[in-house]
Amino acid sequence: MIGKVKEFNTLSGYGVITTLTGKELPVQSKSVNMSGIVVLNKNDVVEYELGTDDNDKEQAINVSLISKAEYAVKLSKLKFKDFGLNIQNNILNPPKCETHDEYCLMKYTNTEELQNGICRLVCNSGKYPCGVVAIKQDNSVVMGCSDAEEPAGICKFKVFGIKEAPKEQQYLSVGELITKTFRLENYGIILALEDNFYQAIMD
Questions:
Q1: 89 φ, ψ to 5°?
Q2: Going by C-beta distance under 8 Å and a sequence separation of 6 or more, which residues neighbour residue 170?
Q3: Residues in the chain where the model's pLDDT stays below 70
Q4: 110 torsion bin: left (phi>0), alpha (psi -120 to 50), beta (else)
Q5: Which H or E element spans position 122?
Q6: Which of 1, 29, 94, 107 could form a disulfide with 38 if both were Cys (CB 3.0 to 4.6 A apart)?
Q7: Strand 156-160 vs strand 141-145: parallel, antiparallel, or unpaired?
Q8: What burial letters (b/e) apply to 176-199, b meaning 16+ CB within 10 Å?
Q9: pLDDT reported for residue 124
Q10: Per-residue model confidence (pLDDT) at position 189
Q11: What backbone torsions phi and psi does residue 119 show, to the nearest 5 degrees?
């Protein structure tokens, strides 16, 4: 699993990792694969496993720092089940690049372009209620969604942040945001890999 460091106190050896779905997991220095003094900085990208502490509470274990390049590769291999969602409800149908054996990469140079791209995906789906979520590299979420029975005449956009965002902008998980908060029956997910390039999840 992959996530980002929210905070870490080198002296106490305790910190918090924010997962891709916005959940916060405690981490201890003894669970970090690092020789010498363990130093984790805010927004460091890490790979980890789920474990429990002495009180049987969930925490991150076997934690390792990974590079931004590794992070992008691991993001590109995520599946719908990683978000608690059903692949059968996917509305995206991008072409597959024969050269790289990957589904389409979409480049959006700013948030307005990203929103316009989401709007096209929603309105061209023919399935309602539906929505498309874009997960950005800072773990914030940009979502566009339709009405229950027709495409959005004026696209409705919401931006959700991770745990340090204002309470009304937080989300528990992408799956819960889509299926419980907005009750969308059809959906798509695209991920920011690097430098404003987004890739659709298709598996």
A1: -95, 5
A2: 22, 160, 161, 162, 163
A3: 20-22, 95-103, 139, 151-155, 161-172
A4: beta
A5: helix 111-123
A6: 29
A7: antiparallel
A8: bbbbeebebebbbbbbbbeeeebb
A9: 83
A10: 92
A11: -60, -45
